[in-house]
Design goal:
The chain is α/β, with parallel strands linked by helices and 498 residues long. The protein has three domains: 112 residues, Nucleotidyltransferase, domain 5; 162 residues, Nucleotidyltransferase, domain 5; 139 residues, Hypothetical protein af1432, CATH 1.10.3210.10. Helices cover 45% and strands 16% of the residues. It has 17 helices and 14 strands. It has a six-stranded mixed sheet with strand order 8-7-6-9-11-10, sandwiched between helices. Strands 3-2-1-4-5 form a five-stranded mixed sheet, with helices on both faces. A hairpin with a 4-residue loop joins strand 6 and strand 7. The longest helix is centred in the first third of the chain and has 18 residues. It is elongated and about 90 Å long. The two termini are 38 Å apart. It is a peripheral membrane protein. This is Exopolyphosphatase. It catalyses: [phosphate](n) + H2O = [phosphate](n-1) + phosphate + H(+). It is found in: Cell membrane. GO terms for molecular function: exopolyphosphatase activity.
Length: 498
């Protein structure tokens, strides 16, 4: 546990339709909501035909983030979690935008996969409900994607993310607010087509209750109940009446629905089409709406990290077991890594840096998972699995960093692999990788005990000093160190040993 716990925690969700911020006070391990901020930015509407985020939308988004940044600017780094979803996953120029956005917020932004988004959404719903149904079906409509999850208690065991959202569907089928029965039918059909491969998985027979979790679903529920078409959330009959009403209108301005805000109006019909398609495809009759969503799930994930229950460590352990890694070897590597870290505690990349230690431990556990594919070039196979797998709790940046360390833990040491990592990892990941390389080298004989040695690492100079005559009695290690010195020399690092 960190020496000082934060008094407040914040979660920021940079969605494709809205940006949300949730701030909670933290006292004795208990959370209390103290502030919520929400702005309709409609990031997805700013994607041009080349999947680039246009300047006008970027300016609108950055203005919002500057306001958010003022609220959380003085928060300690470990007390803030910020995630970007579908549009920031999709935009080709997202990297440049994220750099500006991080400056406005004063904290790093993590891009998460659709599956990770689904897991966090379920966490948010599970922690906001008192219900203990055996199996819950949860649906969340974003601006650019819709997530479907089945889980029980606080564990999501079935997760999917589909490329359809209230902004993208509204832009595609109801451009400039124009409505028609034909367009709504096309939107519904596309929704059903996208759902078809997952119809059996999420069918009504596989869960006990349906829960909606998003602004779109809240708006639909509020409208249907205010119109008197339902008295219990979103019902199939109420949805049919809403669709019939939409079919009578030629433009969204004619909808005039109770409880429908002017902000929600431009993307409302796209959301209705997705919900209608989902009810039809999966046989849903009734859905309640939860207050919990992605940001609430992010808060609880953040809480786990603060109290040393990081879901990423559980994920790493599960994946290592799945690929049947040599646990004893991984444990030996971790012990040697800590032996090195104790001596390098003054290094700028390692001073009081819990994250560096975590990534080295995860790399030690997962560096050999590629051997399940082939021993030859196994480090490349390991890196591919890490980079492209669904790793619960990990952002895309997390996976990229971990994959880079594992990819470079043996053979050629190329500095170019680190240049695209976000700060400060572009500077520190080479240091972590060299530590892992040395640990792996010293445990090439997987059953031998680690030798005592002293290590110094300053700038690009690494010095190893073994006990007297130890290297003379370990010719294989001596030869490996000579080869390692040549690999590192190509990247202008100087390894000296005696």
């Amino acid at each position: 546990m960190p020496q000082k716990l934060p008094s407040s925690v914040a979660a920021v969700d940079l969605g494709s339709n809205s940006f949300h911020m949730l701030i909670c006070s933290l006292k004795d391990g208990k959370l209390q909501t103290v502030d919520r901020l929400k702005e309709m930015v409609r990031l997805a509407s700013g994607l041009d035909e080349h999947k680039n985020l246009d300047e006008k939308t970027q300016r609108r988004a950055l203005a919002c983030l500057e306001r958010f940044g003022q609220r959380i600017g003085n928060f300690p780094p470990h007390s803030v979690g910020i995630v970007g979803t579908n549009t920031l996953r999709t935009a080709k120029n997202s990297r440049k935008f994220i750099a500006k956005a991080e400056k406005a917020l004063g904290h790093p932004i993590h891009i998460i996969s659709g599956i990770e988004e689904a897991r966090l959404i379920y966490q948010g719903v599970a922690n906001s409900l008192g219900s203990h149904a055996n199996n819950r079906f949860v649906m969340d409509i974003g601006g650019g994607s819709t997530e479907y999850i089945i889980g029980s208690n606080d564990i999501a065991h079935t997760k999917e993310s589909l490329h359809m959202g209230c902004v993208t569907f509204s832009n595609l089928f109801f451009k400039d607010g124009v409505l028609s029965k034909k367009a709504f039918k096309k939107a519904t059909l596309l929704g059903e087509q996208r759902l078809e491969p997952f119809q059996q998985k999420f069918n009504r027979h596989n869960w006990d209750e349906a829960i909606g979790a998003s602004g779109s679903l809240k708006a639909i529920s509020n409208v249907i109940q205010a119109a008197g078409w339902s008295n219990n959330g979103i019902t199939r009959d109420g949805l049919e009446q809403l669709v019939a009403h939409i079919g009578k209108c030629k433009h969204i301005d004619e909808l005039k629905l109770p409880e429908l805000s002017s902000e929600r109006l431009p993307v409302f019909t796209g959301g209705v089409a997705i919900v209608y398609a989902t009810f039809r495809a999966l046989g849903i009759e009734q859905m309640t709406v939860s207050d919990g969503a992605l940001r609430e799930g992010l808060i609880h994930d953040l809480l786990g990290r603060i109290y040393n229950h990081d879901i990423r460590s559980e994920t790493t352990k599960t994946i290592a077991e799945h690929y049947r890694i040599d646990k004893q070897h991984a444990d030996n590597l971790k012990q040697t890594i800590h032996y090195i870290l104790q001596q390098l505690s003054d290094h700028p990349c390692l001073t009081d840096n819990k994250a560096s230690i975590q990534f080295l431990e995860w790399a030690a556990e997962l560096h050999e998972i590629g051997q399940g594919i082939a021993h030859s070039q196994y480090h490349k196979h390991s890196a591919y699995i890490i980079e492209n797998g669904d790793f619960a709790g990990f952002s895309r940046q997390d996976q990229s960093l971990l994959a880079t360390i594992v990819r470079t833990h043996r053979k050629k040491f190329s500095m170019s692999r680190f240049t695209n990592l976000p700060e400060p990892w572009d500077q520190c990941a080479p240091v972590l990788t060299i530590i892992l390389r040395l640990a792996v080298l010293l445990h090439r004989n997987r059953h031998s005990v680690r030798p005592d040695f002293e290590i110094a690492f300053s700038g690009k100079r690494i010095q190893l000093h073994f006990s007297e005559q130890w290297l003379d009695q370990a010719p294989l290690t001596h030869a490996d160190l000579e080869l390692e010195a040549k690999y590192l020399q190509a990247a202008k690092f100087k390894l000296e040993f005696r």
